[in-house]
Design a protein that fits this description.
Layout: E1 5-10, H1 17-27, E2 30-34, H2 35-41, H3 50-57, H4 70-77, H5 81-109, E3 114-118, E4 133-138, H6 141-152, H7 156-165, H8 169-175, E5 178-181, H9 186-200
Parallel strand pairs: 1-3, 1-4, 2-3, 4-5
Length: about 200
Amino acid sequence: MVVMKIIGITGGVGSGKSALLGYIKEKYSCRIILADEAAHRVKEPGQPCYDKLVGLLSADILSEDGTINKNRMAAKIFGSKELLQKVNQIIHPAVRELIFREIELAASEGNIKFFFIEAALLIEGGYLKIVDEMWYIYAGEEVRRQRLKGMRGYSDEKIDSIMQSQLREDEFRKYCTVEIDNSGSLEAAFRQIDARLGECV
């Protein structure tokens, strides 16, 4: 039976977490769960958060097919810290529970070496208690800005707003035991990953 290592992946917006996880998925015996995807799953009809969110925000947030519409939900919450807090109190515990179940399932199957959890808010969300390692994917602010403008078409105002809501570099470093510098080429970052995961095998 393979001993599975649980690794958290975090970092600021535009740091390139998705690209690095794509490489890890292809090369290593692992399972990867993205907190954003988990949050989408728990909002589906019949899932834990669906009725609670509709009860809180009304049926106005639903699409014609009865699913929760991300944009309508965002519009309903916009500008209300109180509503945002209530929504987070519904979604975050359900996401954690889903992730815990996935970890238990993977551990019981015993056939993968690494289980990766990716989220911008891993540290704030209390995941330090369940991971064996926390990785900080670093990229300089200017590099991240250029990526967000070029790849996502974000405005400076939107980038400023997102960056101000996230942890500072020194806070990420305070809680993460491994740092992968993704300011340069992807190949350089891949080599850092190989060096780290090679040690863990």
